[in-house]
């Protein structure tokens, strides 16, 4: 009985194996295999989108490179701009300093020109005064001895002179001597001359102009000589 059962089981197993091995092949649907128009359009659209995606990725990469280059240039320009601003501020400060120096120089030049004009006017005044004094010297040396009517200005009672046998020359009595040379004594008194003319002797004259060149004559006992000089000066000026 046992053997019969075993054989039956074996047969059943074999049947199962055969059933499992035999598989029916089903054919696909012919309508599904055919490509429809919508699918074709979708495929074309998909391919276009793929190409557009690739192009966009390429453009993004190039844009990123350009942005990096632009960023570097912007940073460099900002740095250059800051340096230029610093240089401009320094130039403005230097220009203001130079402008102040130029203004001071212009004011100094104007001041010096004004002083030079004053000095020129003072020199001209002194030159004319010296010419006037020179004319007075000429009047005393040349014109005074030959003025007509000189005898009328002599003393009413002239002092008696000893007859030495020499020709009598021109007598100046108490008339002051000329400023330079002329009839000054050989050894004049410097203190009296300084008080009289307020200048140094010709032997001591230097390049420095005198502070005061006004002439002050020594007063005489009589006014005859002063009247004569006034008369001579009036004749010369007329």
Could you explain the architecture of this structure?
This protein is mainly α and 238 residues long. It has a domain of 94 residues. 64% of the residues lie in helices and 0% in strands. It contains five helices and no strands. Helix 3 crosses helix 5. The longest helix is centred in the middle third of the chain and has 107 residues. About 2% of the residues have low confidence.
- The count of DSSP E runs of length 2 or more, i.e. the number of strands, is 0
Taken from the alpha-carbon principal axes, the silhouette is rod-shaped
Helical residue percent band: 55-70%
By DSSP (H or I, 4+ residues per run), the number of helices equals: 5
Beta content comes to: under 5%
End-to-end gap: 195 Å
Low-confidence stretches: 19-23
**Alpha-carbon Rg, integer:** 68 Å
What is the chain-wise order of helices and strands? HHHHH
- Structural class of the helix and strand makeup? mainly alpha
Major β-sheet annotation: none
What is the typical, i.e. mean, pLDDT? 68
Could you write a compact summary of the structure shown?
It contains 5 helices and no strands. With 238 residues, the protein is mainly α. The longest helix has 107 residues, at 37-143.
How do the strands and helices of this protein lay out in sequence?
Layout: H1 2-21, H2 30-33, H3 37-143, H4 190-197, H5 224-237
Features:
about 240 residues; mainly alpha; rod-shaped
